[in-house]
Amino acid sequence: MNPDLVRLGFTPHFAGHFAAHAAEHSASRLPARVVTEHRGAYRVHDGTNERWAVIAGRLRHEAESPLDMPAVGDWVVLDETPDTEGRAVIQAILQRRTAFVRRAAGLDKKPQVVAANVDRVFLVSSLNRDFSPRRLERYLALARESGAEPVILLSKADLADPGPAIEAASAIARGVPIHASSSQTGEGIEIVRDYLRDNRTGILLGSSGVGKSTLINHLLGETRFATSPIRDDDDTGRHTTVRRELVVLPTGGIVIDTPGMREIGLWEASAGLDEAFDDVAVLAASCRFSDCRHEKEPGCAVQKAITEGALSAERLASYKNLQKEGDRIEMASNPRARSEEMRKNRVQARALRSHLQKKRG
Length: 361
Description:
Layout: H1 3-7, H2 12-22, E1 29-38, E2 41-45, E3 50-55, H3 57-62, E4 75-79, E5 88-93, E6 99-103, E7 111-116, E8 120-126, H4 133-146, E9 149-155, H5 163-172, E10 178-180, H6 189-195, E11 201-205, H7 212-220, E12 245-248, E13 254-257, H8 270-276, H9 278-284, H10 301-307, H11 313-333, H12 335-360
Parallel strand pairs: 3-5, 8-9, 8-11, 9-10, 11-13
Antiparallel strand pairs: 1-2, 1-4, 2-3, 4-5, 6-7, 12-13
């Protein structure tokens, strides 16, 4: 394979899919990786050059949802024959290995691919008031669903003792590597580099001001991305990164910078939710009833664990809240699931009416 493409993360997986596509089309097509997106146009890298590209009309017409559109990190098939404005044309998206998908922010409830073909998801939380176990659980559910391996980075370790936060994170992220880092002292920088060896791709996710762009500057060895200090009054940061961008590191590996996310909405993350809350899932499997809601049902292993102090009530509440959120998304996007839920509601309503009539009679 072309070593310049390999440097960008081009693996035999993508080479095989590109070869199958190229065999059916002209020799003018070549693979490239999406670096960033800006107003419907894409900056792509073909291993030699970066250029602007747009989506072919056929690809846009056949897209059934935003999931079918290119995202940062995607490998795409370019037609080098330029359009009228001199841009290459994206004819296809090569099959993704992984995809970090969330519900789009604001009123738009459609899915959004934050990044594709990521090997490591670095969940960055600073050791100040930004640290939130509940938000971390949400990130973990989405990271697990993506297919990539999560790593927790507790930044600004020069400002606070990371011990308590590491203990809190360990309690909700069993088996997930947790590292303290500091862009001031350099702690943790080499650890991140090690995770990205062999041309692996990582993405940094976290709130504004946790130090994502500063960390990338350290990995690059230069100040390429603007940074701003956090506000003294509430420990929150100012937005400096305005769009997702893929960066090739001089020491090897690729990293994707992202803006701070105000909303981390789930999107079809049931499998990821069970992985992120594997302690709850294991307990639930021992409940007497398969449809146990883990409230007051007899034989509930989850409630027993809470009573015995083996599981916190807050952990269960977080799991149930995220589960309900996922169910709402499924019903909104799946007509069959919505119809089944309505049928269950009608059956329950009839049973309730029958019960009340018997009591009155």
